[in-house]
Fold this protein.
Amino acid sequence: MATAELIEGRTGSWEVVIGLEVHAQVTAAAKLFSGAATAFGAAPNTQVSPVDAAFPGMLPVINRHVVAQAVKTGLGLDAKINLRSVFDRKNYFYPDLPAGYQISQYQQPIVGHGQIALDLPDGRSRTIGITRLHLEQDAGKSLHDQHPTQTYVDLNRAGIGLMEIVSEPDLRSAEEAGLYLRKLRSLLRYLGTCDGNMEEGSLRCDCNVSVRRPGGPYGTRCEIKNLNSVRFVMQAIDYEARRQIRLIEAGGAVAQETRLFDSSRGETRPMRSKEEAHDYRYFPDPDLLPLELDPEWVAALRADLPELPDAKKARFVADYGLRVEDADVLVAERATAEYFETVAAGRDAKAAANWVTGDLFGALNRLGRAIEDCPVTPERLGQLIDLVADGTISGRIAKDVFADMIETGEAPGAIVERKGLRQVSDTGAIEAAVDTALAAHPAQVMQYKTNPKVLGFFVGQVMKATQGKANPGLVNELLRRKLASA
Amino acid sequence: MSDLTGLSLAEARAGLLSRQFSARELAQAHIAAMERARPLNAFITETPERALAMADAADGRLKCGAALPLDGIPLAVKDLFCTAGVLTTAASHILDGFAPPYESTVTARLWSAGAVMLGKTNLDEFAMGSSNTTSHYGPVENPWRRPGDNRPLVPGGSSGGSAAALAAHAALGAIGTDTGGSIRQPASFCGIVGLKPSWGRCSRWGVVAYASSLDCPGPMARTVCDAALLLQVMAGHDPRDSTSAPLPVPDYAGALVGDVRGLKVGIPREYRAPGMPAEIEALWRRGAEWLRDAGATPIEISLPMTKYALPAYYIIAPAEASSNLARYDGVKYGLRVPGDSLDDMYERTRGEGFGAEVKRRVLIGTYVLSAGYYDAYYLKAQKVRNLIAQDFAAAFANVDCLLTPTAPSAAFAIGEHADDPISMYLNDVFTIPANLAGLPAISVPAGLSADGLPLGLQIIGRAFDEATVLRVGAALERAAEFRHRASFLTA
């Protein structure tokens, strides 16, 4: 363990131990055990079947697609797929839990032990263990702000399939936790099993945090519930670790409890203890037989997996000769990687990577757009690179053309023609411009012998005179020759 | 016209097909009988208009020769089956005013086969009971009374209303549910036939759940043949019930044609319960003789785990019930008793909405599933359940079915056992093992007790072998020649 991850307290260093429980809503048209729709943002209680509302006599029927999504996720996590798993009932009373129990998986989850590799900023990489992934139902939503004294319940979310992905307590800092979450989200998006949208709540995170002396026995952990952004996860962990250290160093002891993160104050505080005094009375759901998976079906899902971020990154480095950092950025989102590969096809991959991670990302950032609705298609960005490569325009002009493409969505060739930006490689024309520049600035010509840097001044003059269209290589060569002989 | 109510379902079907009477006439006769039977409190909800409309539709089909299998047959439905737009109570205050927007699979199949719905029958609250005295709508009276004794008797439970309606000739057939004996024990008490199919044979979709791993919808009728005709329509795979068996449904009426020659009938010695009345033991012996006379071979066998069935049942069933009944919280439908807080509302609603027996089982179930007690109770009970199933499997390696008494006594007086849940629970001692093992079992009226009350014998079969159960049940029925009628009909 690198010492950089330790927190210095008043009495020495402390190591933070973190495990994450991520609830990922499964991307699926229907719920886990009913045919009701799952679209986000629908009017309250419009996507509810009698099964979701726990009407008498209603029975759950497992959604095969959701099971496939969980298995794919398990395969993506390099995890053991349990061919036999069991659904249990987790019993507790709450108005947004219509049946009075949540159908979940307790002792026999669908996915067993797996792992996620993290690449740390300092170049090291770490493997974080995944304890398990299980399927369960989401609850509805209690709306406390619709009426002064009453709570309303929206059951649209009730029964949507969730994957609870539990990590081992392998994370050692808020930064690692952030990396883990981003990596997991990237993986889920690659697999198409969860949209990873934390604002809409399709990805939620509970953090278990404890502190200990480096290498010592685990401390008592606190669970911070329901964090809905990577930033909040990191802030909450930082706050919680420091709180625990302060407490212990002041002679106190950490109580095992569930805490909430107050994002406006940046601090965690205990949930009312009543809410956590649950005995969930898990037992196997008698309405559902054990879930048995056909190994061939699992094998077919495995064969169908897309290339995942780690493999893609390795391939980008090996095949395209990219720097690891660039590859990292390019593979984070599947859409970005696909965009890059289209641009790079048959071209200088490094140039393609530079364009995508540089000008393109900058423009998207400015526009607040995702790569999926980028005004410049990867084909057209490729054409732009081609125009530079074949000398039609200079690299500098290309930047202007790109800005124009972002603005208008036009093809680069059309912009070059419309604006007359074609690079001038006609030696005669350039020579004339060079001669004019030299004649106009005799003093600087004289300086050249003692100060060769004045060359840059003349390049600027010539480029200005040719509106940047002169081939910079030719300009440099001609100037050097003429200045030397002047 | 009142003759029409004394027909068997099969006879009524023949009469309808040959146009001796119309479905409307048959329905009217039964509506009148249902009204006459009101003192028995067998029905919670009567649906005469619906019955007549369904009968008219059946008449339309019968007239043009397009009759469906049960066209025009008036049926009584245990009020545990959800019926679209019709009050469905589970005999509980907590479902006040609940009219489901859907129809249970089993009733939907019956209506699609042309059957006519007379009404919803009374039961023990949430099917929890063996005497039909825990209903929020009051107890059901057995149409039978001891000769010379005017005290009202229980019809058994929980499907007491369905059994009483049949014995009072207020329906040609009925449906019930059987979790620990709730079809067979009232059948025995009321002198009718009750069949609990294998778990998974009839869909539970739309049936208010008591204990899901044990609940079985099944037919009740006055003859074995009638039960077979009903089961034929009720049975079959339902994709909406994940536990319903994807198996073909054999021709049950056809199975009755065969005889029982060569069949081996197990007589489990552990069913000779201590304190069992001699007359029940005698009837049991007579049943074995009847089957021997019909060409079967009775063989004494052992089911050593039998004595653990009742305690295991009273752990597993309440455990599931405690969870199944959590949905009745005042939030979504049925009764809501307002409170000062959410918890207060829960407590008042459930406190007022559930009766004492339901509360008792919810408490027992909550307890046995609690952290620290789960292994000692629920888990152990599940192990016992497996051992009981193994007992049966071992027995069925040597025999084709089992013969036992249905219940350890005849019907008792309303109020008897009321203060002693254990003695009440003992009523189901012979019926519960088949539920724990998921096996089909039938109760057939086989004789009268010394004080003139019906007694049933039970045939238990291999899983999904309802055909053999029905065939042997029919042999018992032929031999027993039970022709007695309830005192309610003769008074």
Notes: The two ends of chain A are 65 Å apart (CA to CA). Chain A has a mean pLDDT of 92.
